[in-house]
Target: Iron(III) transport system permease protein
Amino acid sequence: MTDTTPKTNHPVLIFWIVAGWVGFCLLPWFMVEDGIWSFVWLVDGYPFDEDYAPAVFLIGQGEKLWLTPLLVPLTLPLLILGKPKSDPQYARILILAGALGFGWLIAQGFSIGIRGFNFDWMKALFGEPKIRQFGMGYGAMICATAFLFLLTQGIAARGAINGDVFVVSAIGGVITIVTIFVFFPIAKMLFAAFVTEDGAYSVSVFASKFFDDRLWGLGCFAGAKCGAAWNSLFLAVLVGFITTALGLCFALVVTRSGFRFKRGMRALTVLPIITPPFVIGLALILLFGLSGSVTKFVAEIFGVQPTRWLYGMPGVLIAQTLAFTPIAFLVLIGVVEGVSPSMEEAAQTLRANRWQTFKTVSLPLMRPGLANAFLLGFIESMADFGNPLVLGGNFDVLSTEIFFAIVGAQYDQGRAAVLAMVLLFFTLSAFYAQRAWLGKKSYTTVSGKGDAGVHPLMPRGLAIPVLGIAIAWAVFTAVVYGMIIYGSIVELWGVDNSLTFKHYVTAFSVRFEEEGIRWTGAAWDSFWTTITIAAIAAPLTAAVGLVTAYLLTRQSFAGKNAFEFGTMLSFAIPGTVIGVSYILAFNVPPIEITGTGVILVVSFIFRNMPVGVRAGIASMSQLDKSLDESSLTLGANSWQTFRRVILPLLRPAILAALVYSFVRAMTAISAVIFLVSAEYDMATSYIIGRVENNDYGLAIAYSTTLIFVMLAAVGMLQILVGRVQIGRRTQLGTEKTT
Model:
């Protein structure tokens, strides 16, 4: 006999009710002075010290009485603990409690700032508060999170998205964090485009900066300089096409050829992504600069005068192609491997030759990966400023113009904001062009049916040029990295080429004493900080990115297009703008994290999240939705389906997101310049400091060390994540294993 009694035991609801009360009653409400990673508060005046006190103790001491109303939304959910979800009061009370609690936290956070009330009418009505407002701490963050998920549970109980708590909560969570850490800081920065010198807002100020000849000038057609906007657009289109083509070549060589050294080639393709961009630029200068070894060799052989051809668009194009091809490869390798061999075998059974099979079956099924690889290459080129800074010469691009507008003598936030809006327009145009090219066609190749087929080798007419291009580019990459290693072991790069290891000793010396190991090298502090920040940020970035990709590909809900736009926004804005906007947004309450390690982690998560989103979308587009439906039919909920069915088939996307987010956190430059502090100094800011002091040997030695550290980390991630097991045979006829 079936039990039809409505279930009233809701463990997820109980968890968030308990979490809310714990945050309010037991944890420090405000950010502790020693930072979020410190737990010194446990033995330093807790819970009565005002700096560490939970909200309930602050209220009891007569402080921060504006927190008292939060007791109402914390109490309301207790009224429905014994009620079934079908009871109308269940949804209403949860929505009311969540909205009241979360809304009040936002209202009081923005109303009471670092100097008291932020609005004159509040000062007149309530007077000045006795003590300032501080940034959110453990208690406030956990309490806010509890209110948010109580709200989403109430929305799900009303029947939204078939009452699926996991999906509604995931959508609500992603929308909230993207709004807080992407829309809010960028909006604060972009409003500066309309601000006059006296603090008022004016459209004419925006127009004067938007229609500047330095931005839109077409002087290149008359032998002069082109505007930064056109330079950036042309460069980004070239980089997008070239990196996608090279990424596809490498993916085909690794998966569709019998090339003996494919493993070494696969490792070599990842090298540029784990290198600070200006280091590649310096290596190119050593090779092709006015006094470069290749330039001198060619000049002597052919009797020509050396030129500065590298400085400008050619040099930036080469450097960006080197730096961003690995992104295309990481996106495409999973897509190429995901094409179902059974479809290709079916085409060959119908007497199609290898070329016809590749052209009419394999390549069309790779379109999601090709489109996403181009989009990422285009956006990366637009947002990159390290390579143009080193090699740009008189070739102005939007990212460097933004950089100089912010850190130059002019310090013109308005001009930087206008340039950022133009850059954003270009990247969003590429985004929508990509969507139009893909259309609404289905690219599903992995279903619930068995598929033990074999990927056919490339047709000979394609294999020869693809292999030739891949080998040539791999050799060129190896030469560039050979010069980087060489530059780290010479006395003075380009002047005194005697070999020495003094740069490594200066940076990473270690002394063994009775008390233990003493890290005496000058670079150790920034090294350990960078490793810690990257290790924290990488899994969080991958998790947020893949959950977002799941929502975009497997769920339908109102505002889906705007939701996707929001997830890509941070990637379209240069890191310089992200850095400055984060300082403006998070230097005051309610989120006061400037100068802490938290702001670095957050910036990396939301700067790199789109890669996890795009890689996940490309891979999930190939998974038949019948897999989800079968799991749900067998009684699993959406969370169990996502964790046990979808995630195991997304290992290439997970690896791409983990690798990219980890190495970008290790090598990021633009945002880091603004966000580091004396306590949290990152490797790239330390390296830039050495470059500014003309200590190139130490800078390159540090960069070389980072390359080997990240190679080891990438190898470990590959082992931990593994490969997709879908029961296919290799070309030798044996079954694939992890």
Notes: Residues 11-158 form one domain. The chain has three domains: 11-158, 213-442+456-491, 504-721.
